[in-house]
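Throughout our pipeline, every protein is held as a single compact record rather than as scattered files. Nothing more is needed to write down the fold, since each code stands for a local backbone conformation. For reference, a complete record is included directly beneath this paragraph.
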Amino acid sequence: MADEPSITRWSFEDFKMFYDIKFGRKKESSSKDASVNSQQTTGQASSNGNSSNGNGHLNNTSELSIYEQYRQARENSTSNGVTQADAEKPKKSLLPPFESAEMRTLAESLSRDIIRGSPDVKWESIKGLENAKRLLKEAVVMPIKYPKYFTGLLSPWKGILLFGPPGTGKTMLAKAVATECNTTFFNISASSIVSKWRGDSEKLVKVLFELARHHAPSTIFLDEIDAIISQRGESRSEHESSRRLKTELLIQMDGLTKTDELVFVLAATNLPWELDAAMLRRLEKRILVPLPEPEARRAMFEELLPSAPEEETLPYDLLVEKTEGFSGSDIRLLCKEAAMQPLRRVMAILEQQDILPDDELPKVGPIKHEDIEMAIRNTRPSAHLHAPRYEKFNSDYGSQILQ
């Protein structure tokens, strides 16, 4: 009995307040007070960078839906004397509506592969490869800039394959396309769409193309596509899940040709002869990215190893002559080896002394002719073995521009 609350009596003020609320005498004043309180609460929440929901809990503005953010911004702008026409339009949501929470979870994992910022690779930063640049501009850049001309039979190619020796600039060309077109760029590798769970790989491929259509115009870059969709056949040892993944990818790419949305699949490979014939059919534009020509090699050497005005000119003609069959990455390694020679001479001196402060360290000397010759002897090309095979594949399946 001691734990039970004691009975209390109402005072006259409490009874009067209850009577007024019950019979509506102070309904207007109470509604006004509630609106004032809600405005104060909203003002406090907005000052803290939060917003209040109907239950009194504060949520971050980023957690609101796109429509709620737009409505809140429009109300704020209207209250500040700005017309509704000047209010900011709602931005496109990051994810399209999905039929299940599972598909949305897969879409969130794929959204991490979207390059939101520009790759910042210009056409001028890629030396040589003029034929590949023209074909890419014709296939991707021009249909986005001038869609009026690319209709009917001239509808843009939806699948482009970049093939050639490793280190020749295929990935840089894809990034240049993304920079030039300002499209949503999906940088996809095999790890992005291959899952250990049964059925998830096919769902990831389907979600990937739905995301690309939602963010159109967009570019899906499949690097090393031979690891995803190699040749199919009974003689090859192939797992069932791998066949389902390849089938789903082929179906989704076939669906791109039947829509008017600007979604491009840009694939790159060093082994084009390993690709399945059905994938080659869907990759309509097949562009060879060859080893650099002498003019391109000279431009690379002049950019990577510039000659100072007060120093002797480096033997660029010798470098161009001795680097036949070198790829762009091989030329970069050769230049790095040549630049290391003066540093090695300084390091030999520093090994005989104690540690010096930074302001007392000796300067690194210029690159000499013997440094260039030493770098040429120590560097071997890595991409010249299959060069004739790439030429044969290009003559059989490639896309070319006749001069």
Summary: The longest strand covers residues 263-269. The CA atoms of residues 233 and 367 lie 55 Å apart. Strands lie at 50-52, 58-60, 114-115, 159-163, 184-188, 218-223, 263-269, 285-288. Residues 26-32, 34-70, 81-90 have pLDDT under 50 and may be disordered.
